[in-house]
Amino acid sequence: MEIFGLLADGFATSLSPLNLMIVILGVTAGLFIGAMPGLGSVNGVAIVLPLTFIVPPSSAIILLAAIYYGAMYGGAISSILLGIPGASTAVATTFDGRPMARQGKAGLALIAAAVASFVGGTISVVLFTLFAVPLADLALAFGPAEEFALVLMAFTTFVGLGGDDVLKTIVMICLGLVLSTVGLDLISGQPRLIFGDLPGFYSGISFLVLAIGVYGVGEILYTIETSRTSPSVTPAKLSFRALGEGLREMNKLWKTMSFGSVMGFFVGMLPAAGATPAALMSYGMAKTFSKKPETFGRGNIEGVAAPETANNAASTGSLLPMLTLGIPGSPTTALLLGGMVMWGLVPGPMLFIEQPDFVWGLISSLYTANVAAVLINIALIPLFVWALRMPFTVLCALVLVLCIVGGYAPSQKLHDVWLIALFGIGGYLLRKDDYPLAPLVLALVLGPLMETSFRQALISSQGNVFTFVERPLSGLFMALAALFFVLPLLKLLRQRKSKPPAVAE
Amino acid sequence: MINTFTRRTAMALMASAALAVATPVAAEGWTPNKPVEMVIMAGQGGGADRLARLFQSMIQTENLSPMPILPVNKGGGSGAEALRYLKDKEGDATTVMATLNSYYTTPLRTDIGVDIEEFTPIARMAIDNFILWVNADSDIQTLDDYIAAVKEAGGSWKMGGTGSGQEDSLVTAMLEEEFGVKYTYVPFDGGGTVAKNLVGNHIDSTVNNPSEQMGFYKAGKSRPIAAFSEERLEAFPDVPTMRELGHDLVYTMQRSFVGPKDMPAEAVAFYTDMFTKLSETAEWQKYAADEALDAKLLTGDALQEFLLNGREVHRKILDSMGELGS
Amino acid sequence: MLAADRIIALALMGLSLYFMWHATVLPIGWTDGSGPGGGAFPFWLSAVMLLASGGILLRSILAHPHEGEKFFPDADAIPQVAGVAGLLIATIAATHVVGAYVALMAFMVIYLRLFGRHGWGLIGILTLATPVFLFFFFEVTLKILLPKGITEPLFIPLYAKFF
């Protein structure tokens, strides 16, 4: 029970008045940064990293943890209110969060997201506290073959996410995967699909550019057409009663949330995977195992809770390989890793033994930051909901400005802003013709990992395709992937048998 | 004409306005009047990025620049994106670029219309080293054991490294030529991932930089076999160099800063001075020692000579690999 | 609806062919001992996309037209949507020359007046508040410089003051 003593020491530092103030400041800043389309925890952490040399290292870690958590919570805000995922981790949150906002339930969706994030964060920090060291070995067991099998599994969990039109879904998945290959081919070191040598394509097409394009600009164009000057969003009301109702609703979802947390933690822990596949898998599974899968995508609160628990749990999980193996699972953890190196800490297996103060200080500040984040987030919900009451044309103008600036900010290229306009107009036309856009965006996110790990595994095995099923862990994931692929089909067949064919909408 | 006239006037007006709020540093000569862009030739999170961001925060904490230094990653196309960007910044006084060896290899492998000779050398901050590593569980203790094992594997020995055509693959090619062996080269997206895959036994050996394996090495999970440095590394006194073992294999990674073509002389002087001061700080010296970096500073013409020499070395290596572009 | 469906399917087929053509720069086959080449993924996935969008085209030719369903249910909306899209493109183009601040301010004025028909008071407040917010949030706090174009010199005293 040595862990608890160490943790108590950690709490003693993280609960001092100065550090509490830092937590509140960090979480609030993180929330706003995360809520901006285009900006996420990477930006928050990058900005405060140099500042952390001014404050004592223990406070510095707390500040970083607070910003990290704040931004993770904030990502859901723009997904729900504007329908633009602020980060790839929050894509799945738009599926049901946005419809809820359109139905005037933005407040409820935001509460659901906050509570779910809190549950995910808490369960995963507990898991982290208890099992950090032994789990590091599991992360090591993941080679390219296992990574490929895992991504394939993530893909199959959202087979059911596409529209009713199979052909159109296939087109969108392929388009997303092809767009994900633009840029440098890592394996051969050669550029490909750079379209007449445009330097802007050298670094590939960023997920954010596509998401801001189709969900931001595309959504605005669509709303302009369908509603023109009338408001698209039912004004949301928020009261203490609504808060209570939200909490009661959430109480029914404990199964989804605890499953999402545990799965999110484990998937996030694997260096290459991270929070995005975790959130997608959680959403996909919640839908697969739901009694009413047809309500997903139309404003089901469970569809907000499932990805939000998983992505928060995964972002805690992704700290694990960073601390125990020195491998960053995401750009944000890469920056944190850089920060640790600057403080003279060597991440890796020895960190827990040589620097217990640091490690347990960090873990205890994760608990504190998580509690602060949920409280501050709920306190600010009225403000966010109020923003939706702006006249539509004003909101529209502001969102377009944010799309332009937010699209420019991550890599600071106007090339990306042009792509946003292109994807926005293209996405708008595709959407009007009933092409599902979610598979397009998801394929772009998972594509690079899938292709690279597939080819790495084949190179390692001298071109033997059976490597994916021969290796035990990889074989297990392949079997699960097959199961997830077949399950929705079986369910569909059973429904067809028991019920007369449903009338299409 | 009218356009330039108004621009000039505006500038003059603004300059006088700026004087009113100017800080005392203005008296010391040229200083940047807008934030300085630090273009990084690699993506976020890699070794080059971490080092560049370390420099940025040190410049900030040591107050070496009156304007903030803003790191921008342009790692696309193995740095081709950054090189093209810097080429378009001709004459600019507030852009510097953090380079690594792709500064040589990228323009040599594919014609991107960039001649690195045109860029303005500022400062070489460090030289990083390469070491041959195996998993600590393996029986391999010496270079001879290693070569014997690779030969026995008959081409299926898995060497992990960064992307094809980048540093790790060049070192691998040098090993193949020197020892007459054949590897299966598995490219990964970063040195950290390579290190992890070695410890997880997914690959058989790597040529990681010391800093990338340091955590695992200290935990006794990976074993250094030989270093590709000129002399023994202080941090690894027991690891022989390839030269000591009778093989003339030396390969290092340079970490320098350059400016665009025709950067104003006073700006070059300012940045050279800034990086010189930076390299003298105790923090940097300690960091360099911890990470087994050679922190000898090189500036001006000496640096240009070093860089052009490096390009020739890489031209030869790439030529022997058949990777030289047109 | 049907015509639009066909045009989009054709456009996607064209796009697939264009991708396939570009993908052939790298080997698209299976190399013995090391798996697929660098062009294989984009090439074959584009090929699947070509087939699937071909299928959509074929289906729309064979299928009965959806009665009463139109691509643009409300023809009045077309100029509105096209106007916003055009304004967006013009704004991005202007950013190259006059920088983000001027371009975005012009965008706000035109959009709010033409499409929103708001009063000049509100337009003035929003148009002035937005760049101030952008400057302090992105440049001062987050240290992300926005493109300035020819307006760069105007910002030098601001840099001196706030950085």
From TrEMBL, chain A:
Keyword Cell membrane: no
InterPro entries per record: DUF112_TM
Domain annotation DUF112: ranges: 20-442
Pfam families xrefs: TctA
Entry annotated with the keyword Iron-sulfur: no
Keyword annotations from UniProtKB, A to Z: Membrane, Transmembrane, Transmembrane helix
Residue ranges crossing the lipid bilayer per the database entry: 20-39, 46-69, 75-95, 107-133, 166-188, 200-224, 259-283, 325-346, 358-385, 392-409, 415-430, 474-493
Protein name, UniProt field: Putative tricarboxylic transport membrane protein
Natural source organism: Rhodovulum marinum
The organism's taxonomic lineage, starting at the top: Bacteria, Pseudomonadati, Pseudomonadota, Alphaproteobacteria, Rhodobacterales
TrEMBL record, chain B:
InterPro entries noted in UniProt: BUG (IPR005064), Bug_dom1 (IPR042100)
Family membership: Belongs to the UPF0065 (bug) family.
Keyword Ubl conjugation found: no
Organism for this UniProt entry: Rhodovulum marinum
Signal sequence residues: 1-27
Keyword field: Receptor, Signal
Name this protein carries in UniProt: Tripartite-type tricarboxylate transporter receptor subunit TctC
Pfam families, alphabetized: TctC
Automatic annotation (TrEMBL), chain C:
InterPro entries from the UniProt entry: DUF1468
Keywords for the protein's UniProt record, in alphabetical order: Membrane, Transmembrane, Transmembrane helix
Protein name in UniProt: Tripartite tricarboxylate transporter TctB family protein
Domain DUF1468 positions: 7-147
The keyword Signal is annotated on this UniProt entry: no
Segments traversing the membrane: 7-29, 41-62, 83-112, 118-138
Organism: Rhodovulum marinum
